[in-house]
Design goal:
This protein is α+β, with helices and mostly antiparallel strands and 403 residues long. It is built from 16 helices and 16 strands.
Length: 403
């Protein structure tokens, strides 16, 4: 394997993972921690889920995991995803998933990915969404395997795809929205080549189910920098694929506030709402801020006194509750649950109320792993950062599939 191997501190790897790896080793199969667990552990966070990869066929994984789970209390094994190579098991309070090396892609016009099993780890990692998610920890030796420069991208706060963006987004078009989600939640910059590919290929999002889009959109909104991510999504055309009300706001001049247009005003309201959150990220509050003016395009009137948007709140109510997203599996339009327009708290829209705090709340606090590999990751700057090619580079650029 041509992968670069580095020895990270062994502290972050839970004992249960090492125990499972020993069970696979005894059966003659290697086991690797993969995906978001590796990324978050290297950032010093506490990853919530344990995801593993192995060359063992699914039926062999099932045998090993049945024996492993049976050695503890509350043992359970799930085979729901075995046709796609995934077997889940629980021992005690810990649940794990093991997936056979694989690749997957969406055929043109299909909502269902085609899965093929692979024979080596590097092929498996190459078909994941971004390089920061394409690292693995070999167990039980606890060696970091990084074939695509994910560790460097993690240190630089940069989102790149392991293969070309066109291949990555052809495998799963949802990755275009996921790039913006990670930009929001991790405060990472998106590589210019990835941004260009999203601009060209955003129509591919139409084949993705509404449920998957809703999940990514909700995570984006709950991130550190949702306004910057939504601005980029609108600029490259992706927002029009799942929340078309948002780009329409760019065309409507706001005669009251000192903003270029209602779109810019809306992002400012979203930032103000985030700054006033009393107990961390609040999806309902952020949706209310984002959607509070979506009735303006339908109520714009030109008068001798200027442009007006009378009764836009009433016209926006049926639009904002709920928010439409693409049709799901040939049925009626699926929708995102969203609050009906209500009066925003004083101060969110700049019309009275207490002075607004400057800047933005950081992400929710996360517990730290003792001994975790800590990479330099600057705290979010005050104000809303730019993303993509417009963002100041954190460093020079060198030469999932599942998150």
């Amino acid at each position: 394997m041509s992968a670069i191997k580095r020895p990270p501190a062994p502290g972050p790897v839970p004992a249960v993972a090492l125990d499972l790896a020993e069970a696979f080793k005894a059966a003659g199969w290697p086991l690797y921690l993969v995906g978001g667990w590796v990324r978050d552990a290297l950032l010093g966070a506490t990853p919530p889920d344990l995801d593993f990869a192995t060359p063992a066929p699914p039926d062999r994984s099932l045998e090993v995991m049945q024996r492993w789970a049976g050695k503890g209390g509350n043992a359970r094994v799930w085979t729901t995803g075995i046709d796609f190579g995934t077997v889940a098991a629980q021992r005690g309070d810990t649940r794990v998933e093991v997936t056979t090396f694989r690749t997957e892609r969406y055929e043109p016009g299909s909502r269902n990915p085609t899965v093929a099993f692979a024979t080596d780890l590097e092929t498996d990692l190459s078909r994941r969404d971004f390089t920061v998610n394409a690292m693995a920890i070999e167990l039980p030796d606890v060696t970091l395997i990084d074939p695509f420069g994910g560790l460097d991208d993690l240190a630089q706060g940069r989102l790149r795809t392991p293969l070309s963006p066109e291949v990555a987004f052809g495998d799963d078009p949802l990755r275009m929205l996921r790039a913006l989600r990670f930009a929001s939640t991790l405060d990472f910059a998106i590589d210019p080549g990835v941004v260009a590919a999203i601009r060209e290929l955003h129509g591919g999002l139409a084949i993705i189910s509404a449920e998957r889009i809703r999940e990514e959109f909700s995570k984006l909104l709950l991130g550190r920098s949702p306004s910057a991510a939504l601005a980029l999504a609108t600029e490259v055309g992706l927002a029009a694929e799942f929340i078309p009300e948002l780009p329409l706001l760019r065309l409507e001049q706001d005669p009251i506030h000192r903003h270029k247009d209602v779109f810019t005003h809306t992002l400012a309201v979203l930032d103000n709402a985030i700054a006033l959150e009393p107990e961390g990220p609040d999806l309902v509050l952020r949706l209310a801020a984002l959607l509070h003016d979506i009735g303006k395009p339908r109520t714009r009137e030109f008068t001798p006194e200027g442009v007006t948007f009378h009764h836009h709140d009433g016209r926006g109510a049926p639009q904002g509750a709920p928010v439409p997203v693409p049709h799901d599996r040939g049925g009626a339009p699926a929708r995102l649950p969203a609050p009906a327009p209500a009066q925003l708290p004083p101060g969110l829209d700049g019309q009275g109320g207490p002075p607004l705090r400057q800047g933005r709340r950081g992400p929710p606090r996360q517990a730290q792993h003792a001994g975790a590999v800590r990479l330099h990751h600057p705290q979010p700057s005050q104000g809303r950062p730019a993303l993509g090619p417009h963002r100041r580079a954190r460093g020079p650029h060198p030469g999932a599939r599942r998150p």
